[in-house]
Amino acid sequence: MADKESLSAQRLAKRSPQKQIYEEHERSQFTERPGSYCKGGFQPTHNDEEFAEGRYKIVHKLGHGTFSTVWLASDRTESRYVALKIVGSGSSTYCPESTILRQSQQGDIDHPGRRFVSTLLDDFWLDGPNGRHLCLVSEPAGGTVAASKKRAVGSVFLLDVARSIAANTVMGLAYVHACGVGHGGRFISQQYLIQIPNFDALSVEEIYERYGKPERVPVRRCDKEPLGKGIPSYTVVRADIVQPCSQLRDGRIKISDFGHAYKLTNPPNMVPIEREYCALR
User: Fold this and answer.
1) pTM value?
2) 143-176 pLDDT, tens per residue?
3) What is d(CA 49, CA 83) in angstroms, rounded to the nearest whole number?
4) What angle do CA 199, 46, 93 make, to 5 degrees?
């Protein structure tokens, strides 16, 4: 019951007009809102922080959404980079993503669409000041197809790249459906991630040289009072890994974000996203 109340309060806070608590910064638009760090909300996360008994070390930030933050981390056990998604504690209990991703990995290994679907490499739980968080580990990828298009104003994807993205998306969804899963998310290129070739070949220093070092945006209260427990002293701007569509020469994608996914044998009574934007079977 407490988790449901925390989640409801978090959603209400996002919709309801409230007195401004935190100072605005010129870079605030590129990070999550500080108010997301509350009971039932996000886990404060810092560069070089370690998780899962030191296995994963934070390198940079990949992004954030309504219910989670996503970080680039080095996997010290497998000597590779991974994407570490930390779900808000109020959403973690009801998040189907790990279960759905496990089911989607039980499909035909020779299916041509399997390589275009995000793979769950690991998952674990984290206890923090704002609650208990589900953490999902997958392969890292670049920005979304939509962001790539937006980055190059007035430009379009090369015809071969556009065809490749379309074909890979169809094959990926065919594999997901063959596994008995409906994605259920808003499919206007927001869940297609451009794959980054040879990402593991880069050192941390080379990643910073290519994509920039983590940029901190200070968090301060308007009333100058100290920050409460569970609120970080800064947020982090996501790494600039989006390639303009005019520069892309490879249409390989990953279908990600299965937070609204469901088993086809048990479809939801109400789809949380407008039907015209849903990836339904």
Assistant:
1) 0.86
2) 888 888 888 777 788 899 999 999 999 999 999 9
3) 14
4) 90
